[in-house]
C-alpha cells in the first residue's frame, strides 16, 4: 500500500487526497460482498503495479471461441475471460436461456481453472425485442426517464429484464464464482440507448440495488467502463456513479489510443480504486504500460478484434511478456497470496517496551500481547520494565466484522497515540489521568487494517485500553480475535 500511496502522491501531490486514497482503496461497493469476491478484490489490489492481467472477450453465442483460439496462438490462456449476457440476435426466449446457461457453465469451468470472470451486458431497450438495433439506438432524455421511473410500463419491463439476467448471476453466486460485472458500458458516447443521459447514474444505481439488495448477488465487483475521451464522446467523469457503487474504473480504448492522460485521469477520478482497460482492439504496448501507465490491472481484447487488429506474432509476444499475467501465472500468484496470507494470520500484537518515555533505543522487552487492556496502576508491566517512565509501541493488524464507521476510544494514563492504515486517529501524547479520547475511521469487514498504538507512562498510575464502537458493534475493548500480528 505504501508504494501505491507514494505513486499517488507523485500523480496528485495532495495530502488530503492521500488520506482519502487510504480510506477507499479496498472498500468494496457492496457492503455484504462475499468472501470469494473479497479475495479477488484483494488479489487485484495486491497485483496492482506488478503487471497487467491479459483478457479476452467471447460472444454470447460462442462463449469459448476466441479464448480457446488465443491459447493456440499465444501459448497460454488469458488470465481474464470476458463473457456476454446481453442478447442482440433477436433469438427466442428458449434459445437465449440456453445461451446464457452455456455462458454460466463456461464461467464456472473458467473459475475452477484459476481464471477471472468478467461479464458485459448489451441490454436491449426494455420492452423491445433482443435485437442489435434495440441496443444501438438513440433515445430521448424524456423516454429514458420513463425507463428509470417506478410505476411506468418501461420501468416494469426494465425490472423484468434485470430479473432474467439475475437468474444466471445467482447461479454463479451459488457456485462461488466472483464476477467483474460490467453493464451499460460506454455511457459517455451516444451509440447505445443508455448513452449520454443526464440521469445515467440513476439507471446504474437502480441495477446496483436490484442485484445487491433484492437479489442478494454478493459475488459482483462492479466495473464502470466509459469510452476513452475522444471527439465522439463526453468526459467520462460526467457519468461516474461514485465510489459507493463502483469497484473498478475501466476505459474502453480503441485505435491504440493508450495515452498517459487516460491512465492518470482515471486514477485520479477513482481516488486509488482499481483501473483497467475494459475493451480494446489493438493490444497495448507493454513497455509503455510498464514505464508510465503501471496501474492498469487488466485489459480485455474484444472478440474477433484480437485477430483483426493484431497479427499472430504480436499476440504471442504479448502473452509471453513477463509483465503480462496469463491464466496460469495469475492463478499461481493468487494461490501464493492466499497461502502466505493464511500463514501470516497469527493472533496478537507485536509489543516493544522501552525503559524511557521516548520509545528510543533498543527495546528492553519484546513480546506478543493479546490485546490492549492494561491497568497496571503502580506496578511494572514486566520485571524487565520499570514501574515509571516507560513506553510501549504495539503494532499489528485489525479486522472488523462490519463495513461501518467505527469510533475508536483510548483510555490512558498517560500519553497515547493511535494510527489505523497510517492515519493518526487519536493523538493525546501528554500527561493525563485516566482520560478517554475518541477518533473515527471507516473499517471494511474482512480487511486487515494496519494498526499502531504508542503509549508512555510518566509517574504514578499506569493504564492503556483500546476500545471500539459502531452502529452494529457495542462499545467494548477490541478483542483478541480481531487483532493479528504484522506480516
* Annotation field: number of helices: 13
The CATH class designation of the largest domain is Alpha Beta
Separation, N- and C-terminal Cα atoms: 13 Å
Number of domains: 2
From the alpha-carbon coordinates, what is the Rg to the nearest angstrom? 26 Å
What percent of residues are in strands? 25-35%
Would you give the CATH topology of the largest domain? TIM Barrel
Shape: elongated
Q: How do the strands of the widest beta sheet line up side by side?
A: 2-3-4-5-6-7-8-9
Q: Specify the CATH architecture of the largest domain.
A: Alpha-Beta Barrel
Low-pLDDT stretches are 1-25, 339-343
**Share in helix:** 25-40%
Largest sheet: 8 strands, parallel
CATH homologous superfamily descriptor of the largest domain: Glycosidases
What are the key terms here?
487 residues; alpha/beta; TIM Barrel; Toxin - Anthrax Protective Antigen, domain 1; 8-stranded parallel sheet; 32% helix; disordered N terminus
How is this fold's topology laid out?
Blueprint: H1 2-12, H2 15-24, H3 35-47, E1 52-53, E2 55-57, H4 65-74, E3 80-84, H5 93-112, E4 116-121, H6 141-147, H7 153-174, E5 179-183, H8 200-214, E6 220-224, E7 248-253, H9 260-270, E8 274-280, H10 286-292, E9 296-301, H11 305-308, H12 312-320, E10 324-325, H13 327-344, E11 349-354, E12 365-369, E13 373-377, E14 390-399, E15 404-413, E16 415-420, E17 423-428, E18 435-443, E19 448-457, E20 462-469, E21 476-477, E22 483-484
Parallel strand pairs: 1-10, 2-3, 3-4, 4-5, 5-6, 6-7, 7-8, 8-9
Antiparallel strand pairs: 11-12, 11-14, 13-20, 14-19, 14-22, 15-18, 15-20, 16-17, 16-19, 20-21
Helix pairs in contact: 1-2, 3-13, 5-7
